[in-house]
Structure formats: C-alpha cells, structure tokens
User: Fold these one by one.
Assistant:
Number 1:
Amino acid sequence: MDKILEKLFNDIEIAKDDIIGVLDHIWDNPELGYREWKTHAYLKQKYEELGLSVSEVGDIPGFFVDIDTGRPGPKIAVFGEMDGLKIPSHPECDKTTGAVHACGHHTQCASVYGVARGLVDSEVLSALNGSVRLFAVPCEELVSGEFYENLKRDGKIKFYGGKKEFIRKGLLDDVDMAIMIHGGAKGFGLNKGCNGSINKKYVFTGKTAHVAGARNSKNALSAAMLAMNAANALRERFTDGDLMRYYATVVPDSEAPGNIPAKVTVVAGVRALTTKTLEKVNEWVDLAYAGAAISSGCDLTIDNEVGYYPRIEDKNLQEVFLETARYLYKDEDIYVDLPAAAGCTDMGDVSMLMPVCHAFVGDGGPAGHSAEFKVVDKYLKGVVAAKLQAGVIYALLKDGAVRAKKVKENYVPTFKDKEDYLAKTEKLSFKGDAVKYNEDGTITVTIR
Ligand SMILES: [Zn+2]
Ligand SMILES: [Zn+2]
C-alpha cells in the first residue's frame, strides 16, 4: 500500500467515532422517501463543519458536495441514499410514520460522509486529478400514494426515484462515473447487476348486472383473472437468466356483492435483467391483458411507468473496487461475480448513462426490508465502507487519473445522453385506452 493511501485510510480511521455518530443519528431519525428533510439538514451541517459547500436541490430533499483537486480530470459521483422504509412492525421504527432504515441507507450516508473526512486532507488531494461529487440523494425505495402524486402534480418531481430525478434536474450532467456501497449479506461483494422494472396499472371496464340476470353483462373481474392467468403463462417464454418477474394485485371495486363487477383495477409490475427483455415482457403482458379484455368484451386502459432500468455493472470499476477491497478484507470475505439480483434500484438508471459500480458490504446481520433488520457491525458498514469508496476514488484519480480515464474510454452507454434517456423513458411509459371496438366489427389494440 502506498503512503498516501495509507494516510487516507488512517484519516478515516481517526474519524471513526464521528462516522459512527452520523450512522447512529440517522438510524434514530428515519424518514421516508422525498421527506428526508431532517436528514438533509443534519448532513448539510456535518459537511459544512468540514468546510465544504453544499449545493441543495431546493424543492425536494437532497444535495451534493464537490471536492475538487483543482486539476483537470474526470468527476466521480458517490451516492448516499437517505430514505427509510415504512415497516410499522419494526421495533425501532418512528412510531408516527412507521419509517425505519431497514434497507440500511443510514450506513450509506455515514460512509459517504466518511469519504469526505478522508478526502479533505490536502496531502491526499494534491496527489489526484479531477473531482469528486458526494451526493445525499432522496427516495430510492419504491413509493406510491397521495403525497407522491401531489409532488408530481405540483411539478416538484417527475419521477419516483431520487437518482432519476437528479439526472433529470441535470445534477449528473458533468459527472463521468458513479460508485456506491449498499448493505449486503456478508463480507465485500460485487454482483452481476440487477433487474429493471416497469410499474403497471390496468383498469378493466365492463357492464354490471344482477347475477340473477347477467346475460348481457361484461364481467370486469373475469377479464382481470383471465389477464392474470395469461400473463402468468408468459413466464415459460423466458429463460432463467432473463430474471423475468411478473406480479399483480387486484384492487377490489365497490360494486354490490350481488352484482357482476363492472370495473376492476389491477396493479402490476414486470421486471427483467436487460432493457431489451424488459421491453419484451412489458409488451407481451400488455397484449395478454388486452386479449383478456377483448374475450370478455371489456374496455381496458393501461398506465405504464418505467420504475428503474436494469443496473449494468462496469467491469473496470469493479476491478478497482476489488483491488481496494483486498487491502481491507481477507480473501475468504471477498465475493465476486455474485449472481444478478431480481430487485431494482435507480442506480440502474445512472448505469444507462455512465459507468457504475454498486458494491455491497455485509455484516452477517438480519436481512434488509425485514422487521428484524439492524446493523450488527457499524464499523464495517460505516468506516470500512468509507475507506473502500475513498480508496477507489484514490486509485481512479491518482497518476493523472489514468484509471478513471480508462474506465471512461471503455464505457458504452445504453442511452446516448440525458435527452435520449428521458425521451425513451417517456415512450416506454404508455398511458391510454388499449382496446377499441370499431363500428365495422374489427378491434384495434394499442399498447404504445
Ligand atoms: Zn431497499
Ligand atoms: Zn436499499
């Protein structure tokens, strides 16, 4: 290990009580997505105490802090997610909101703050080129409900997903690559990416009648059940490697129990490991629903919205992470090439535009998203994770940023640029009537 890297790790080690203090504070004050104002204010103050200036987003929580070497070179983003999950059965949740950091995002905020503690040292910075942008980002978990619909209606957001929103607002326009560390099962881990998702809402409209004389009715619930079975049968058209997922819930209507249901809403979603497969499963499930509506004579409206895109891991960035992890972990605690995950993250959206590595640090504790979740090793998830990220930045930006430049040169984006990303996302988010019964007896199906 060279002397400067040793100093960087040592500076973070010296700050360990401060870093764990941040971790504890945010655990004790959990907030839900796009409501992380207390976390925002607390972290802002912590960064300002280091003499760093904070650029706030404004109408939603979140900010970034730039640490610039003053020499030209790539800009590396590091993300710390601020949102908790709503799990009212968790013993340590906020009793009013049910919020708890059951996905461990509080450890991310602490470890990214730890990166700042290491990098503010002038000796470390003077060995580097380029710059670092530390993000406190809101709302990674999937959310729904009136509060969020209002944020959209008021024009404060367009997307559920803080990183998506930060992309849209231009906060990543001059960023060249992005890294982060999420809580994992155990040791240090790198996996093969994760699924993308499209959230879907179908409304079947039929014709009600009393069950006793239902000959001319159009049963919207029968149509919905047919649709769900038809979509279920699509699973066999995909391989295991596609990681295809389809899920749906019927939202009950309010018709009288003795009546044929005339309106049924199905809230559904699809997932897959590549954007191509995601588009395919999205199209086929929509066709299955349209076919079921037609067979029951019902109308169908579709409301699709891209959740998150698949996360593509950058091999060169993973290599740098792995090299850095070898300074901090024993070989038996390092897990590479872990299988791709069926879960989703808006880090996927970032990976569509720039090289990304979303590494994992685990402490062997209870699973995330459970009512039992807690961090059992704060040092690992706060301090070691800070050293890992700072070490990766150091490796990328030292020697004239030669490694970062290599990462940049070898990257092939899925979307040309932000505009292309926004336009294609809009196109995939079809909303409208899917079935039209024409006067001449033909039927028109529209799904995009
Ligand atoms: Zn989560
Ligand atoms: Zn998470």
Number 2:
Amino acid sequence: MIKKIETEYLKYFWPMRHYLITCGELPRANIIAVSFCMPVSNHPPMLACAIGQHMHSAELLQQTGEFVVNVPAPGLRRQVYYCGYHSGRDVDKFKETGLTPLPARQVSAPIIAECVAHVECRVEQRAPAGDKWLFIARVLDAYADEDLETGLCELELSLGEFPQKVYGGRFTGKAS
Ligand SMILES: Cc1cc2nc3c(=O)[nH]c(=O)nc-3n(C[C@H](O)[C@H](O)[C@H](O)COP(=O)(O)O)c2cc1C
C-alpha cells in the first residue's frame, strides 16, 4: 500500500494567479495583492475573495462594498509584490508603484490602467473564515484589453516557484 505522509497542502494549489484588487475611492483608493480569489457562481456571475481581517483593504471593502479584480499584465511582478508587502494604511500604493488609476464603469473603486483585465464587483455577503473575511460578490462588469482577448498578450500563470515565504508554514499536519 502507498504510504501517505503529512503535507503543507497549499503547495498543491500552486501555481496560483495573483490579482491586484482595488478598493476604496480616489484620492484614497488602495491596492492589495490577492491570490485567494475564485469564481463561485455562473448564474448570476459571482466570485469570492479572502482578505485578512486586519488589512486596510478589508476595512475599505466593509465601508464601500465595491471592488475591482485587476489581472496584472506580465511584467508587473515588482508592483504585485509591493502591494502585497505594504499596507495602504502606511503608503499610497498608486503613488509608490506608479500604477495608474482610471475610473471604473460601475463601481467607485478605480481600475488599474496597466492591468489587462478588470472585473467589477459589489459585495453581497461577508463571512468570517479563520484569519480572513470571505467577501462574496456579484460581478457587475468585466472587460479586457483587446490584445489579451485576441491572444496577442498572454498571462503569467504564476510567478515562479511555490513561495514558501508567502504561503508556507501555515499547516503543520495537525488540525487545531
Ligand atoms: C503574491 C501575494 C498574494 C497575496 N494574497 C493574499 C490573499 O489572497 N489574501 C490576503 O488577505 N492577503 C494576501 N496577500 C497579502 C496582502 O497583499 C498584504 O498583507 C497587503 O500588505 C495588505 O494590504 P492592505 O493593508 O493595504 O490591505 C498576498 C501577498 C502577496 C505578495
């Protein structure tokens, strides 16, 4: 019989995509790097994303109930990691990364011009999920760069090896 051993299970979810979620409103809009984001319903179109309960973005989402999932173009790795390691409580991430905010079509949060696809969402439910809030949201609009749609531009599926530093060490094999 094959022997089964304990594992850091998250590595089996790798590669994950990385998204830049915009929330809040200009001039105080914020950007957070998020991997825990997935479609959950086709009819109506809905998605869910898990955001740390103490993060600035969770506070903004609670206040406005609106956000945009921006899909980064290849080559935005530095900006993704900046937004994933700094809090909007301390810095203006648009200013620090040089990313450009543009008005969204239906929500108050801006889109990021340098990203190649944008999914505008309105929060319908917020559920506690461990150290995160799970925001379950209706998709109000979705659009992408023509080059992406026609295949001239391709997305990066992941940014290298399983990033143990970001996700690792969360599960030691014993449920608590
Ligand atoms: C690649 C990457 C993916 C991340 N994914 C998530 C995620 O899915 N959920 C989350 O709460 N934080 C995630 N983070 C961490 C947040 O982006 C980070 O804590 C950020 O500084 C919070 O910013 P804020 O305080 O401005 O909201 C990720 C970070 C990186 C680098």
